[in-house]
Fold:
Amino acid sequence: MRTVCIIPIKENSERVPGKNFKLLCSKKLYEYIIDHAIQAECFDDIYVDTNSNEIKEYVESRGLKTIKRLEALASNSANGNDLLVYHYELYPQYDYYFQLFATAPYLQPSTIKKCVETLLTSEEWDSCFTAVSHNGFFWLNGIPVNYRPEILPRSQDMVPVIEETTGLYGISNQSLKKYRCRIGKRPYIHLVSEFEAVDINTEENLKMAEFVGKVYWGLNG
Structure:
């Protein structure tokens, strides 16, 4: 079974200008996920979809392939589903498609490999994504989601709320073709640590990631 990993990294960012080029613990943000995808050693091919010459040069220096970002898919209205469907139509020959994001710099190669192996070796799942589990008290539009305030449970007894980390998504060729979505009808949810779940979309996220990274490598370096 042939697998492909596609990493979309655009040059522009509305909320944090130049976000993907920011230094995080002395390394540019976009370098992390590219390096981790290579280190996972589980993909037949890795492409980086970008409109940045700098990123293109870095990708090619690592022996990978690039896809020129379509102008229509570089806008803020484009989403991960749009990108993956476009990439599937460009390269329909793979059995499984995986999508990784530069905003998840701490997603580890071992986790990437585990997700790929689980999806490829099980007939139970048609897709997968990384997530975190929360045992908190959650509300949506003024309504409690996972508990009744009049019957206050212990937090450890609550039904957890699962949050996608927007770090990794994977899906079979058949399900992607059928649903045109990066998550199919039978997804495997791979829970990750809060460290791996770091998702950088704001300046505050970047500051927190810098702090977390220094603490983590201080303890594990």
Q: What stands out?
A: The longest helix spans residues 203-220. The radius of gyration is 18 Å. The chain has one domain: 3-131+164-220. The chain has a mean pLDDT of 93.
